[in-house]
Amino acid sequence: MSDDYVKIMPCLDMKEGKVVKGVHFVDLRDAGDPVECAEAYCEQGADELAFLDITATVEQRKTMLDVFRKVAEASTIPLTLGGGIKSLQNVEEALEAGASKVSMSSAAVRNRELIEQAAKRFGSEKLVVAVDADASEDCDSGYEVYIDGGRTATGIDAVDFAREAYDRGAGTLLPTSKATDGTKEGYDLELTRSISDVVGVPVIASGGAGTMKHFYEAATEGKANILLAASVFHFGEIKIPELKEYLREQGVNVKL
Predict the structure, then answer these.
(1) What range does the domain containing 31 cover?
(2) Is 161 among the domain residues?
(3) Rg of the chain in Å (alpha carbons)
(4) Is 154 part of any domain?
(5) Which positions ≥6 away from 40 have C-beta within 8 Å?
(6) Is residue 2 part of a domain?
(7) What pLDDT, on the 0 to 100 scale, is given for residue 95?
(8) Is residue 226 a part of any domain in this protein?
(9) What is the pLDDT of residue 107?
(10) CATH assignment at residue 204
């Protein structure tokens, strides 16, 4: 990892031009204007920001780049754009619109060579591969990859896929547990750690943050380099400066 400090990454889950937040990838609730959210997070000291167009793939449409451009213009920190990224052209358009990194999920599972092609053309440091997973007794790791916004089971072992994505050039891995998403009961530490153990690039903990202790557990037990959360930030339950101060007091190296 290029930086030795753990990063805080609010996530803007987007639908119809608004920030939304759900539970288990569904039951979405309005959480505000994306530009206002981005500006607020930059001011609060977030290290990075994620912008995920969560229904683009299912609705078979391209990412909402018009909205993203406005967010990019308002942001002073690195932005990761995901949702509906299916081709090298989509990656290029996202980078041109202001993305620092581009996240692909369903397309990367369906076409593994796309990972290699994107890494070769744009650089591994710009490529995030998201791994949506749920518990499965049929997979050796205990986790199965889901695609189409968590709607479709694939039968593919999530840890094996993460390792392959890394081998093919992914510069960051973003595992999200379907079981813990939006629950505020804690990250799936086993999933995060299992993937962190088999890749040599940053891993983003995602899905389930509810308390400051959950962030600490993700950084230590989960071995995550980047801590992503949505609802606890959107609804003001946890303030980023306070979270960073807490983590620092617990011995986690964060950028204050």
Answers:
(1) 7-249
(2) yes
(3) 16
(4) yes
(5) none
(6) no
(7) 98
(8) yes
(9) 96
(10) 3.20.20.70
Between CA 239 and CA 234 the distance in angstroms is 9
Are residues 238 and 232 in contact, defined by beta-carbon separation less than 8 angstroms?
yes
Beta strand pairing call for 127-135 and 143-147: antiparallel
For helices 240-249 and 212-220, the axis angle rounded to 10 degrees is: 50
Predicted pLDDT of residue 20:
78
Would residue 150 be called left, alpha or beta, if left means φ above 0 and alpha means ψ between -120 and 50 degrees?
left
pLDDT tens column, 151-198: 999 999 999 999 999 999 999 999 999 989 888 999 999 999 999 999
Give phi and psi for 21, each to the nearest 5. -145, 135
Residue 132 a catalytic site member: yes
> How many domains, the chain?
1
- How many Cα neighbours within 13 Å face the side chain of 107? 24
Closest C-alpha among 246, 218, 230 to residue 183: 230
Query: What span, in angstroms and rounded, lies between the C-alpha atoms of 169 and 236?
Result: 36
Q: CA dist 41 to 21, 60, 71, 182, 223, Å?
A: 16, 30, 11, 19, 24
Q: Which candidate in 47, 53, 132, 157 is catalytic? A: 132
List the one residue out of 156, 220, 226 whose CA is nearest residue 193: 220
Of the candidates 13, 157, 181, 188, the residue annotated as catalytic is: 13
